[in-house]
Amino acid sequence: MDTFADYLAHIDHPQHQARLKEILDWVTQQFPQLKHKIAWNQPMYTDHGTFIVGFSTAKRHLAVAPERLAIDRFSDEIVQAGYTHSKELVRIPWDHPVDFSLLQKIIAFNISDKADCATFWRKSL
């Protein structure tokens, strides 16, 4: 988790810092094969050089960025969890619980769907 230590240290709000650390630790434990790094000023996970998921913080929410295809695939479940989303990210309000089972599905989907992907981002359809 040292990769993310500096990023976490710069989050001013202690509860936001703790929440993101909890999620990053969880992803690292659930998906130990993923590589973690900081890119575009956000913690992210990759698999064989392709993007799987990234995270960032905002004043009112934690943003989860799994790419558009994953958001489209899980849009109904994202809304049922009480989150909003755009085409590129899911917003988890700081005062809402994290739906780890949904996060698990999204990450597992990206790993499986991008197993043969040779680029960092999915090609636009």
UniProtKB/TrEMBL annotation:
It comes from Sporolactobacillus terrae. This is Iron chaperone. InterPro entries: YdhG-like. Residues 16-111 form the YdhG-like domain.
